[in-house]
Write a structure and sequence with these properties.
This protein is mainly α. It contains 15 helices and four strands. The protein has one domain.
């Protein structure tokens, strides 16, 4: 598939336009939602609200990871240095990750997606998997086994969310510790220092499961994992707002469109999808409505 078959030069200019306003809207909005969740659990501290807060915070942790991903592509902000500074301190470090290392590995995924050399293949090449296999994965995620394994890898030198990527120095790890300390300090200043454990618990459990579901949604059990056409090796999931709140914040569900043109900011991917539909570029692409339908497809009964 050639981009020029479906987009003119003017279309490409329009869809790839970056905006500091939209970038700040997403970054600030994400942190406002985090603050609201903390306020909720602080006002009504009981097992039910803590469990709900962990799910919602895990969704916001994914939201920060998505914005880190955008900054890694240098598509979040129009102002270049904001991608580096905001992307690292307000997006990557709070979720125990390092923007430069992540970006380096992720761009390699884009270069090799649809081939046997894709470095992310271990995350989804085995799908569809049996329901028993998937239940074991979910159990490891929700009991913290996956999360503790990741934190251990980060302590040993991994760059962050993708534990196989190595950071080049100890400074990124120090930045991550500073970000965690600052988050705790803010919560402590409001008299709810204990709520940091909810943030950490969400990261170690529900966030691991959400990351897994996202990986499955994007590339698992696609029409042809080893075809360079993103319509065959990548998937977009149309989902209701309440699923997007947790599993697909900041337009991350439009993943096929992202692989179609990686320079399109996340806040323009939906418009790009509508354009591709109008151009009949997606006429034969399978449609998945919601993550329940997606998991039924990727997990054998």
């Amino acid at each position: 598939m050639k981009i020029a078959d479906y987009l003119t030069k003017d279309d490409i200019t329009r869809f790839t336009a970056k905006s500091d306003f939209h970038a700040w809207r997403l970054v600030v909005g994400n942190w406002v939602l985090i603050a609201i969740v903390f306020a909720l659990v602080a006002s009504y501290p009981n097992p039910l609200t803590i469990l709900l807060a962990m799910v919602l915070l895990a969704g916001r942790q994914l939201g920060l990871s998505v914005l880190m991903h955008e900054a890694g592509h240098r598509t979040l902000f129009r102002t270049p240095w904001l991608n580096d500074v905001v992307g690292q301190w307000l997006c990557a470090a709070p979720v125990f990750s390092n923007l430069p290392s992540y970006a380096k590995g992720h761009l390699e995924h884009h270069r090799k997606a649809g081939t046997h050399d894709d470095p992310d293949l271990p995350n989804y090449a085995a799908y569809p998997v049996s329901s028993e296999s998937f239940r074991r994965k979910v159990f490891r995620d929700l009991t913290g086994q996956t999360g503790f394994k990741l934190l251990s890898a980060i302590a040993r030198g991994a760059s962050g969310i993708i534990s196989t990527q190595k950071r080049e120095s100890a400074w990124p790890f120090i930045q991550e510790l500073i970000a965690q300390a600052l988050l705790f300090a803010v919560l402590y200043a409001f008299g709810i220092g204990w709520a940091y454990l909810v943030w950490l618990g969400a990261f170690l459990t529900f966030f691991m499961l959400i990351i897994r579901v996202r990986q499955v949604a994007e590339h698992a059990a696609v029409p042809d994992l080893y075809d360079r056409d993103p319509r065959k090796n990548t998937r977009t999931v149309d989902a209701p707002w309440w699923q997007k709140l947790v599993f697909a914040p900041n337009g991350v569900n439009y993943h096929m469109e992202h692989h179609f043109i990686a320079s399109v900011p996340c806040y323009r991917l939906r418009a790009l999808r509508e354009h591709l539909k109008a151009q009949h570029a997606l006429d034969n692409v399978p449609v998945f409505s919601g993550y329940g339908q997606l998991l039924k497809h990727a997990v054998a009964v």
